[in-house]
Amino acid sequence: MTLSSLSRRLPLLIGLSAIALMPSLPAAAQATASSAAPAPLSSLVAKVDIPYEEFTLKNGLRVIVHTDRKAPVVAVSVWYHVGSRYEPAGKTGFAHLFEHLMFYGSENADGPFFGRLEDIGATDWNGTTWFDRTNYFETVPTGALDRALFLESDRMGHLLGAVTQVKLDTQRGVVQNEKRMGENEPYGLVEYAQLAALMPEGHPYRHSTIGSMADLNAASLADVQMWFKTHYGPNNAVLVLAGDIDAATAKAKVEKWFGNIPAGPAPQDVDASVPTLAKDAEVMMHDNVAATRLYRNWVVPGVNSADLPQLDLALAVFGGLGSSRLDNALVRDEKVAVGVKASVQPFEKLSLAEITVDVKPGVDPVAVGKRLDQLLADYLTNGPSADEVQRAATRQLSGTIGGLEKVGGFTGKAVTLAEGAVYSDDPAKYKKDLAIYAAATPQSVAAAARKWLGRPVLRLTVAPGERSAADNALAGNVKAEGATHQPAHFRDPAASAPAAATPPTPTRIAEPPIEPVKDLDFPDVEHATLKNGIPVVFARRDAVPTVRVSVAFDAGNAADDKAKLGTAGLTAALLDEGTTTRSSIEIAEEQERLGAAISAANSMDSTTVGLFALKPNLDASLGLLADVIRNPAFRPEEVERLRGQVLTRIAAEKTEPMAMAIAQRMLPPLLYGQAHPYGIPFTGSGTESGVKAVTRADLTAFHDAWMRPDNATIFVAGDTTLAEMMPLLEKRFGDWKAPAAQKGTKLFRMDRMMRPSRIVLIDKPQSPQSLILAGVLTNKAGTDNPVTLLTANEVLGGSTTSRLTMDLRETKGWAYGAGTALPGVKETIPLLVYAPVQTDKTGESIIAARQDVKDYLTTKGTTQAERDQTINSQILSLPGSFETSSELLGAMMRNHLIGRPDDYYETLPKTYRAMTPADMDKAARESINPDNLIWVVVGDVKQVRPQLDAVGLPVEMGTLAD
Asked: Chain centroid to CA 679: how far?
């Protein structure tokens, strides 16, 4: 389940405000200056420490407390030791369905839980279900901790009185749409095939966590009661509090809110052995994909096996590193693949090892598969080198250190402690794992690889083509007569209604008030200038020994060559693929040795090259960053290799409805027109014809025109000082001179073409869902800083309690997520409306969305309650919004892009408090004309087209030829 506000992530999803802040771990050091050797692994391990205290209540609730005073927030993380492997036959998907119900009210706090979280300014909140556990987490202002503990305790101890048949039916529909959404993606049925082939009948891990449609339809209120009473007692849970709290305070608060909840039955484990295939297995599937993907899978031991870290390193060396064996052989050298991966997905009782190769279109997949197996056999025979093992271990340690900057979220300190406690009965399990990584040798890694990867393997291939009935059947989507993708009802209309269960008598507990929460104290921002004129913007964050640097250029996708769209993206992609003194492999290896990560990205308005560095290795990492930025080689062989990858990516985008890539390619030219710099695919990949036409000279010209010192600003955040940084930056960038070529300029102008409201329908046969993406240009630019309009959008579709979300998801159950967004571009801002909906509700969903938008902008404006909830959420969430150096860096860059002062975020509470419902309505109504919305729909034309006549808009077919 992913309940966090989709709209707040949409700008990143559509490529409008991507920032190279936390790259994917590949680069480091300057050819013109020697640097110190990388920090030894032992010193990195010593820096990873999460001190904690723990206690257990009389009812069995285990509580772990970690103090971190860097921000006035506390992460609350509740882990229940139950997941989908505990589901009995005929109840698949129930653990996850129950997780959804936990978000819809308890006896003393009825209504959507996430609305209450937004009321108190919660950040990083969500709930997830996996094979072994279900967790619920949020980070809240310190003054709201009692409220958060009240809410968590009420759903742990007092849930059932608030669970109704209507709630169960609605969430059943939401979960089924979540299932459709995942399956509608390319390769979306693979997990079902893998589990069926790897696990024997009856194995607890054999069925997917999302479950089957039939089992979801059969879930009853009696099932809900039984699941809660069996698995959701305090003695089957771990509560972690991490942040602005100490153990004594925590003990008093937890005892108050959780102490009176009675213990549940003693937890009963569901054991699961690690199965081994009797012989190699071959599976062939077909899907609407751009490239054939080859899989190699094994079931390997769970998290408590000492072999797992060794195996993780083995797979990283083989296919996970930027300099991996597979990447070097199949992608760089032989050029028969456009992407490779190798990793372990860890679970409690077992784990899944996976290698994937995306075959270059036009190359024989069978031959590539044989080559993959040859490379693996050679690797198992000869093992990795010492340097490969050290690079892989350094990358692992670096990633762990970076992830622990947060107290909560998906990767923070609370999660690390909770996972160790739940899976291993040891909150400090991470230390043992890191020690194994640091002490690993080529011999130990090779031994684990031979032991587990030398067993029979599952070879699964997904090739372009139509999905088969058999593949759909694995997902539990086939009725007895064999028809696929039937609409899922809240319950089977042919079956009798389930017997109503008798709810318990509700308890009565008063909701605690929120204690005073101080307004945000944004870190001090300092400014300096290098001797060649490059501005430097700096802020300190010392929670972990890391530094993040972003060199931003006024370029981005808006600077792309209209005649050769994709030039900007290809230039950025090639920066770390070779300099005048380093090869692509050398750059990747150097990053890994240093635990650094360099990545280049384009937003619509900026090209940014970002660095994540360990502080002990900062100088060398900056050297590599400078080399990558200043001296890209654009070697012809690398240009051709990356050209092939980008073309495959474009082809893949045309198959990806749920990532909205298809609609992102179609919609922008319809909104902005061909002449406007934003009238291009929002994905930033360009067009097939443009990418094919780009020459090396074009790439060099783009770099000279845009990526130059007189067009750059350097942003720094992390565990250092401006005084420490300036000499290092001068050393690497201070002597950089602008080239003779003229600096690039962007011309923002609109053509005079009419853009009438209409529906553009794109056919995606066999699609179980339709993706709806609509847009209209507002009369505001990012430089207008339209904060009142942005706040109004929270009410319309920007939050999880917004009008559109509550209608399409919570009331009607037609969508897993729906909403609106105002992407953070510098010039004219579009309003986007998005909703992935079940296929049979496509037309009705457009009608409902149009009505919701129209009502808000005309007769049903912002209510006082909506204004109050939105303003409270915005103000209270600010202290938790800049906890990490990457969040801080992003805020500094955003302020710079649209011309806001350094203290902008500190002034926001005053701005919010002065805002009235009338102000919000005025801003929205002046900026948005709902009658001009253009709708792009991606779905199965045979099922969708007949529904669209009722919408009342012209319908035309769209194609993605380029």
From this structure: 26
pLDDT, average across residues 614-620: 96
- Where residue 959 falls among pLDDT bands split at 50, 70, 90? confident
Nearest to 250 by CA among 137, 146, 152, 121: 146
DSSP symbol at 951: G
Edge to edge, the sheet with strand 53-56 lists 53-56, 62-67, 237-243, 73-80, 134-141, 123-129
Would you give the end-to-end CA distance of the chain in angstroms?
34
572/15 Cα distance (integer angstroms): 14
- pLDDT of 658 reads 59
Q: Has residue 22 got a pLDDT over 50?
A: no
103: left (phi over 0), alpha (psi -120 to 50) or beta: alpha
Query: Can you tell me whether residue 34 is helix, strand or coil?
Result: coil
Find all residues with CB under 8 Å of 113, minimum gap 6, and list them.
102, 103, 104, 105, 106, 151, 155
Q: For 151, what's the count of Cα atoms within 13 Å in the CB-facing half-sphere?
A: 30
Q: At residue 12, does pLDDT exceed 80?
A: no
Q: Where are the beta strands (DSSP E) in 603-690?
A: 607-614
C-alpha radius of gyration, the chain, whole number: 27
pTM of the predicted protein model: 0.90
Q: Mean pLDDT across the stretch 140-168?
A: 95
A 10 A CB-CB count for 282 gives 11
Per-residue pLDDT at 913 exceeds 50:
yes
What does the alpha-carbon distance between residue 594 and residue 336 come to, in Å, rounded to a whole number? 30
**DSSP secondary structure, 266-297, as one string:** PP----------SS-EEEEEEES-SS-EEEEE
Q: 581-613 pLDDT, tens per residue?
A: 999 999 999 999 999 999 999 999 999 999 999
Which residues neighbour 825 within 8 Å (Cβ) at sequence distance 6 or greater? 16, 17, 604, 605, 678, 781, 782
| CA distance linking residue 748 with residue 745, whole number of Å | 10
- Output the CA torsion 516→521→522→525 (10° steps): 180
Q: Is a pLDDT exceeding 90 seen at residue 38?
A: no
Which residue has 């010209």 as its token pair?
Answer: 701
**Closest of 734, 735, 773 to residue 937, by C-alpha:** 773
Looking at residue 563, its pLDDT comes to 93
Residue 632 to residue 60: CA distance in whole angstroms: 59
Q: pLDDT tens across 845-864, in order?
A: 999 999 999 999 999 999 99
Please list, in sequence order, all residues whose beta carbon lies within 8 angstroms of the beta carbon of residue 343, skipping any fewer than 6 positions away.
312, 315, 316, 319, 320, 353, 354
